[in-house]
Target: D-glycero-beta-D-manno-heptose-1,7-bisphosphate 7-phosphatase
Amino acid sequence: MAARQAGQTDVESPFSIRAGAPLPALQKLLILDRDGVINEDSDAYIKSLAEWIPIPGAIDAIARLSKAGWTVAVATNQSGLARGYYDLATLDAMHARLRELVAEQGGEVGLIVHCPHGPDDGCACRKPKPGMLEQIATHYGTELAGVWFVGDSRGDLDAALAVHCQPVLVKTGKGERTLSKPLPAGTLIFDDLAAIADQLLL
Ligand SMILES: O=P(O)(O)OC[C@@H](O)[C@H]1O[C@@H](OP(=O)(O)O)[C@@H](O)[C@@H](O)[C@@H]1O
Ligand SMILES: [Mg+2]
Ligand SMILES: [Zn+2]
Model:
């Protein structure tokens, strides 16, 4: 299958912050994995809008960060597209719903990038490859070093390390499963996205 480019269905403003560095005048950038971080995940994939269920506290966390000047972008593998489990319109409906829920709380979601490919397509965007993170960095005109990338799977952590992001693991989604095996040195661990927002907004 010809490798399609990673899909992006959103635009956002160009700001960033290197986690741990002095806070520059520019806004702060946080990158999130989707399934298992923002919404519940399933080994059967998230195949419909009805199956897209926000993790408690996640929508509020994104809204709180956004209102505090953080740019919150998303990088998500969506091999279910290549597998034919759902189509792009369904994926877009999930992301429209995410935006709607965050907007209802006065926040906004930044760029959402997805990898539509399957594991055997040899694309550059499927995590653990860092292509989507690089796409987000290009979009916002920023470096990635030290930027927190929050995921629930080992592939998320490895993608972060590939571009010198700060790997951050949440225990939601597949996080506990990921935590049961050795993690990359320096990985930060939080219960959930709400706890990350609490930390970043201290
Ligand atoms: O966590 P993000 O990247 O947002 O999305 C993960 C999903 O695309 C799906 O990724 C699949 O992995 P494979 O793509 O089949 O290896 C499985 O892990 C599913 O359970 C999961 O829902
Ligand atoms: Mg995930
Ligand atoms: Zn891809």
Summary: The beta strands are 7-8, 28-32, 70-77, 112-115, 148-151, 166-170, 188-190. Residues 36 and 173 are 4 Å apart (CA to CA).
